[in-house]
Amino acid sequence: WRLLAFRTLVTMGDVYVSGAQAQGATNAAVCAAPEPCRTRAEETIHRALALTDIGVDEIANEFRWRNAMLAARQRLARIAESRGDLAGARAVYVQIGDAYREMSTAMPKHLRWKENRLGMHWSIGRVGEQLCDLQGARDDYAAALELARELHRIEPGRIDWHRHLSRSLTFAARAAYASG
């Protein structure tokens, strides 16, 4: 039940994040403006994460819980990024990427962890571009591209791996072009 409560709170946080992102079309029933939506999202996701404080040892070894907690932390990083806290967001993205690397090492046949790591490299690269750290962005996009190629080699028929490969190539090319 705790996992269900956790996911429900995170989903509620997502509703607030969506309200904050609806540029000029904020639903007054949800929030009056973007910043109150971000604040409500942050509070709701923190409430969800507080549920993980109970039985930390049990949760830390359970991959479904770890993934859920990392996804919640990613949402908080996106909120920080939307507020302009790029360095803080990047630090959280890096931590999440490191956790997914550990998970994919522990469960090498579970491709979701590699896919999630790929997404973290995209996020870190995007923030790096915003911080004018073009070399860092290129490095992260290159790491994402390598993961996309690996996923594509493992299951060449999967459409989502084709899409990840295409996006990774696009991001890597954009960063290379921007850095000259």
Descriptive account of the structure:
It is globular, with a radius of gyration of 17 Å. With 180 residues, it is mainly alpha-helical. It is built from eight helices and no strands. Helix 1 runs antiparallel to helix 2.
Question: Biggest β-sheet, characterized?
Answer: none
Give me the oligomer status: single chain
Compute the separation of the termini in Å. 52 Å
The H-and-E topology, N to C, reads as: HHHHHHHH
- In DSSP terms (H or I, runs of 4 or more residues), the helix count works out at 8
User: Based on CA inertia axes, which overall geometry fits?
Assistant: globular
Q: Which segments are poorly predicted (pLDDT under 50) over 5 or more consecutive residues? A: none
Helical percentage: over 70%
Number of DSSP-assigned strands: 0
Q: In percent terms, what proportion of residues is strand?
A: under 5%
Class from helix and strand fractions? mainly alpha
Secondary structure elements and pairings:
Elements: H1 2-21, H2 34-50, H3 56-60, H4 63-82, H5 86-106, H6 111-130, H7 134-154, H8 159-178
Offer a few descriptive terms:
180 residues; 80% helix
Summarize this entry quickly.
By secondary structure, the protein is mostly helical. The chain has helices spanning 2-21, 34-50, 56-60, 63-82, 86-106, 111-130, 134-154, 159-178.
